[in-house]
Structure prediction request, 369 residues.
Amino acid sequence: MKNIRPKKWLFVLTLPLVLFLFNSSYSQCQIDIIQNDTTICFGDSVGLSININNSTNWIKVTNDDCYKLIETSQNEWYLNTKLEVLKSLNQGNTWSNTSWPLGVVRNNTSVVAGISHNGSRLVVGALDNGYYISTNGGGSYTQTGPTGFGCASNDIIALPTGTFLGTMTGFQRGIYRLINGSTNWTKQISFGADFYEFALYNNNIYASLSSANHPGGMYKSSDDGVSWTSIYSSTYQDNPRVIETVNDSLYFVTNAGDFHKINLLDNSVTFISNISGCDHPADLIVTPDNTIYVSDNEKIFYSQDFGNSWSTDTISGVTLFKKLSFIGNEIYVGSEAGLYKKSINSQLSCLWSTGDTTSSITVSPTQTT
Prediction:
């Protein structure tokens, strides 16, 4: 018997008989045992990792009506709100305003959802005013890109080459590209349509086309965003909106709340399920424990079986959820009521020796005093 910490939970692991005590303050947890070594022989040390999926309450981080949290380094975070770009140097404990140059453009807004970074370059979407770039941590900004009524970027992505890609709505709608070191954006799509979100897989970039004025679908670029080809076509209600890549798959949710998977090896598309009540998806992410999260107007939906079934999560008083982020072991969601977070996953690794070569590992949790 091996005591790791003072006991609150007793986990009996059998290989065939191994016992240790683990202290956990979690009220609900799912235990996954991952064996690191493939061969077990007498005297060898066998490493195990215990993943604990913790379901905690949401905690408010800021009160600002905000979109998305990004991490430029471990201690430097940025958050775009409707009227400002905030900065934290202590992992969100305190926040300060950057030198965002715009006041209210209209509808009590000057900042839109798109935000990204590469090295010292921070790029932020602005309502009717293209993209703003800062190279000094938000100390100053330079206006770049297409401007005009309705111009708004829902997503900006930084590529490993240093190139930025941005979606754009309004009369200059399309996909725009900014190469490393430049301030000149070039339009990369010959037709005007509202692209919504980007995702990366290996050297390929994917963009969801969710437009009322053009047939929708999924587009792919394999040359740093220069040229794009359609790999999936759809009608308006079935247009892919929010997307995410995991291994060889691309998941997307349509305007109607249908959850699909594209096999990126052959571009085959599979309908998996309908997310009941999801009629305006805002974002989609997959956390390291393979939980899929979708934010929507009034709820956060999540699936722990690769989209076959869905549960809902709510935050009291919040009626409009926006972008999702995963930093450390916490998931963040922007909303009209502020930025919220909750812990998702913790891990304990332990080590012991055994001579057993055949028995599988089992775990039996028992609450103790």
Confidence is low (pLDDT under 50) at residues 1-54, 346-369. The CA atoms of residues 185 and 302 lie 36 Å apart.
